[in-house]
Amino acid sequence: MYQSLLSKINIARGRSSKFFKVDLHVHSHESDDFPRAGHKSGSSSNITERDKSATTKDFIDAGNKAGLKLMAITDHNKSKIAEEIASLSDQNLAILPGMEVSVKTSFLPESTVHILSIFPEKFGNADIERVFGKGGMALYSERKDDAVLNIPIDEFIKSVHSNRGICIASHVNSNKGIRTLFRESSAKLIRTKLRKLEFERRENKNDISPQEKLELESLVSEWKELEDELQNQYLLFLTEFEFDAVEVQKSNDKQFYSGTHVDDLGIRPIPCVIGSDAHNLSDIGLKGNCTYIKMTRPGFDDLKKALLDPGTRIRFEDDVPSPPIARILGIQFDGGFFQQHTISFSDNLTCLIGGRGSGKSATLEALRYVLGHPTNHLFKDKQQDIQDRLKYTLQDADIKIAFVDHNGDTYILKRRYGESRTGCYEIDGTARAEIDVAVASNLQAKIFGWGEIEELARNKREQLLLIDGFVPELKVTKERIEDLHRTIRENTNKITTLAEEIKSLLPRVAELPTKKALLSKLNSDALNAVFSDYDKNQQAQGAIEGLRNTVIENRKPFLQSDLEPFQLKEVLEEALKDILTKINNYSWENQLKVQFGSSANQLQEQYQSLLNVWEQLIEILNEIKNKLEIEGVDIDNNLNKAAEEAETSDAKSMLSKRKTLTEEVNALQAIQDQIDQKQQNLQTLLQDRWGRIVPELQQARRNATKIRRGKLSVINSQLRSLTATAKVNVTLLHQKERKAFMLTLGTGIKGDPEGLLKKVNRHYIADKYAEHYSKRHSPHTFVQAILDEADEAGKNLQISSEENDNVTKVISQENALDVRKHLHPKIDGGPYLEPEKLRKLLEIEHCDTEDLVQISLDERLIEELSPGQRCSALIPIILLEGDCPLIIDQPEDNLDNKLVFSLVVDIVRGLKEKRQIIVATHNPNIPVSGDAEQIVVFETLTRERCEKIILGSIDCEDVVDQVKGIMEGSEEAFRIRAEKYGYKMRAKPEQKS
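-> structure tokens emitted (993 positions)
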């Protein structure tokens, strides 16, 4: 279903540059020693009849079979067959004509070296012959493999260059190789090596004197110095004589032609290639003996460009990059500003360029929209700007993205503007409704819209989220932290609910102490004896009534608001009835009705059974209550009889008063018992909060810090390895990000919330109470210090500052006691707590404190830096970490060109093979010196629609013209690139009159 979409995207990717397999050292049957068995690992040891009768087409077939996209035919001193084979080049395999030439040297008598000379496609034998000049080479018909060109090496290379060719030093570490010859020509090195070997042989036999051991150590040191000196001379020779590359035997050898080896000499890295040196058909493109070269179109021109920039354009089989783990192949629009455009992205670096309002940022925002990334972390005006842009560019548009995940599976993500979520489909159109694109881990990308990096530089919480995004294993710990946060909030609700219930009951027991005092005055042995059974009965009735109320209270959630039983079956059957007209066309309708009805019956039965158990409990307690009430009537009759039989009116009055007060006190005491039970429950919840929940939360936070610091260790190691001059470092302070805590207390700053410390005293703003408490205390220790009854002097709330060995009270004992008095939720100094003040106090512990990220640039915290410097510290971190697609709008904002080139470009060049990078930019250094594999050029003539999109790599001449025409400073960017990587500036096209 979506094959045509992928086809369009692949066509659009056709002019992006990528790595192609290349063999630059292949012999044909024009070499005297063809065919012969190979000498390399994996080479063919058998010569076939096909080798003996090889035709030009056989070489084409062999190259295609080996997966080559570019091949050079380099026979010994001859090029006619090379010309014939090269003439058969096609779009599948480009073939270059060349020769392997033996050139005489002055290093040793009669010494020669082999040099590969390779020329553009369609270059003829006659053109190639011109490079020999007056070199004394035999006539072509008489020329043999061992023929020698008798002219200086540098003159030969200049001649090749003047005839548009390139020169590669053949198999430099083997026979006829330049490095081998260099070493053999150093008599001093040879003598030193021989003496060293002799001493080492004797040392192995324990036949060496102490003096000779010292001499051996000296020889080893001298030999190493000679090796280094010779290596330096060799590298300088290659550079001075302008070799375009060297042919090495092992991929590991390339390290000796780059890095400090050349930096210390002040020369550019020397390109290294590996060739098969095939002398039979089977060895062409031999595994492990080819080079992978990044080109847009395999051919001589792109090969030459690659040799100028080996750091990003030349790889060997063991280090050729596989595609990034996940990548966006392209995006297709149907309607809206972009009309019917299809835009493709390379696997590496894609740069979007164009004038203001041409669609660069809109494309990135469309990617964000389809991928379902939220924007609620941005400032309100920024969110509105994005919404306005989306509405303007995507109105009435369908947008599709082709996304390859880390497993290599391709998905089509589709969303029409205005739809609530993105649909996910396989290539054949199968809907993957179970995949929520916005949260699916395999369909993620990092997106930074315009100005978001600068916002990130100001927001500590967002910086932590950035770091967390690099640590997927942190997810479980963060979920545990969130669970504990929920537990604390639930604990707060339970505690404050109990405090509210206690507060509502307190007025009802206000007279209990007075009535108890009056009752105690009526106590006498005679009265107590008379009231013994009465007191016992009243006590039992109160206890049973309390238990009955508890059961009734806990039964309430099982009933409706009017305490009527739920009619679950009727509710479910009515709900089913409402949808029957909408499902009557499906075969499973009857099955659903039967299954639904059966489940509704079962649910109603189980609910009724559970409700019956509650009713049974209440019935049991009602029976006991009735028994106690009957017993109470008998006791009351006895008391009445005792009163009637009393001899005096005072005795009768006392019996009546005692009875009345006893009833009142028992009723009030039952309420007090409820209060005491609730207060005990409240204290139990507080103990559980600080004895279990908070310690578990603190441990989870410590675990999170440990995991983050482990990742930061890796990040800092990567940052130190950068070649950029700016040194970036990231550290983490455990749970020191407490801004929410500080704002909850109240800073007094205009625009901040009033806070809980308002009116604590007239010093709290000037003396920065909130700032000091948030630095010295966690929310948990602060709340506990407020409620700590044992700390009468408020020591835990005092704060001192030590400066120059002098201790200054920032918050004195007196002020600390003010804070405690202001925040403590006691009701009239008693044991009970004011619910609203208690809630506000406990909610301090809801403040989400976090680890504090500290990012520094050249040992200065980014808070102390300019916006541009802050961004330059963050960009390396953003680019370095993660393997999902990275999408950035104008990363160069606030950076000067020097930082763009030394920081952004260097990192992009080093990382674009490890992850896909898509950048919208106005700075030409990023696509030009970043060696962009794909450049997307937007052109628009009106505000209503995007008129034209041009796609291609930095190698494409029309793209280069667009870069120069659109991007201010592009000529300087190309000049810097040419200076650093040795490219030649392309002449400006003449203006037509």
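Residues 800 and 810 are 5 Å apart (CA to CA).
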